[in-house]
Structure formats: structure tokens, C-alpha cells
Amino acid sequence: MANELAAEGASGVDAPRIGPRLKAARLAQRLTLDELAASCGITKGYLSKIERDHASASVATLVRICAALNIPVGSLFESSAAGEVVRADNYPPISFGGERMAEFLLTPFGERRIQSLLSRIEPGGGSGSETYELPVDVAFVYVVSGEICISFNGPGAGEDVSLATGDAFTFSPQLPHSFRALGDETATVLWILAPALPDDVRPTSR
Hints:
Helix content is about 20%, strand content about 30%.
């Protein structure tokens, strides 16, 4: 507590405004103030003041907060506070299984509210013949180019859905499903999942 009071007293108008970035990172991971404060060994009130820039954290505290949020400390001091940019020539490749396909993560690894993936699926490639389910509420699919088929099975699954360039489809990924590219063209597909996949089923970076 003494360290918290000392840090609070050190806060000044010239200090970088990192509070909103910390709060945005916490909300992105769907953490409460209580949860993050407990994991960092500080009080909820102190963390709230840091997020509102009413108190400045010590270096050790800031390192612990960033470690708990899985973000680099340096990201708090970058010039843009609006969000995190993923450049077109630098998509992070991920491994999410499947056959004859490459996938990329378009949202930050720490983002929990939503997750966006880009798939490039070669002709005949896809998730494989076995169906799977995902523990999220909703999936949105947009076919940037090419054509794919999403197949369902199980009670209430309905018919297979074929999607061509420009088509969009929203469905429950908790239904057993699989997908594959149709035709002779590589399909480029945007997938959006909400909320993001839990850590134990998340794709891994390559």
C-alpha cells in the first residue's frame, strides 16, 4: 500500500497517458478490474486510478500489469492510441489445422471480444472431412474471392451452404461443421468469431 501511495503522489501532468491503453487491453481480454488487480498484487482502486491516469504505476507494477495482459510495455508508449494495426504485407501466420490452406490472424493475440482470421484455401483444401465445433457464440464468413462450401451435420444442422465471391454467411459455430474450397481457384475467406476462441483452443503462431 505504501508503494501505491508513493506512486500516486508521483503522478504529474507530464507523465505519458497510458491509462486508456491499459484499460482497452484489459477490456479486450474481458478481464474485470478485480481480476487484473488480483493477478498483479495491487488493489482494485489503485488499478482504477492508473487506468484513469490519476496515479502513475511504478516500473515493477507496470511490468506486472503488462505481463498479465500479455502486451509489451513498449506498446503503451507508441504514437497511436487508437488501436493495433496489422499491415497487409505482415499478417501473422497461424496454424489452425486443415489441409492445403494457409491462415493468418488479423486481430491482436490478446483480443478476447472478437477474433478475425484470413484463410487462403487451395482447390480441394479446407478443414478436412471430419466436422468440428467451436465454443464461441457466432461466426461470420465473407468470401473475398473463390468459392467454398460449409457442410453441417447433426440435429437441426440444415443443408450445406455454398458461398461464392462476395457472399457472406452468419452461423452458430457450435454446430458440427466443416468447410472446403470449390472449383479451380484458391479461395480467400475472412472469418470473424465472437467472442474470441478460448486460449485452450486458440490457433498457434507459426
